[in-house]
Amino acid sequence: MLDYSEFYFNSGSPERAIELILEGMGHVPSNAELEYRITAYYLENKERNKAYNHLVNGLELDYEKHSILLTFYPRANELESITDLIALYREDS
Question: What is the pTM of this model?
Fold first, then answer.
């Protein structure tokens, strides 16, 4: 599932990638890696509110894995709201 979602994401079909991750989340709830991946996919799809919600979920589950977001969406470092949210959780860790 992760490989397929990555394939669709890299092929310019973030909507399909999102569908696959959501399906996976139904089978594996509370998975930080899925939360960070879907955050990246939602950011690419310009759905920021959904991205922020999943980013918070990921940070609460496992702050240390937030680099997954940057792997799939390197421009996240350019979004002040994202970097501020990550910094807030870093302080709480």
Answer: 0.93
Pair 59, 85: CB distance under 8 Å: yes
Q: Where are the domains of the chain?
A: 2-92
How is domain 2-92 classified at the architecture level of CATH? Alpha Horseshoe (1.25)
Number of alpha carbons in the 13 Å side-chain half-sphere of residue 26: 7
**pLDDT tens series, the chain, 93 aa:** 788 999 999 999 999 999 999 999 999 999 999 999 999 999 999 999 999 999 999 999 999 999 999 999 999 999 999 999 999 998 776
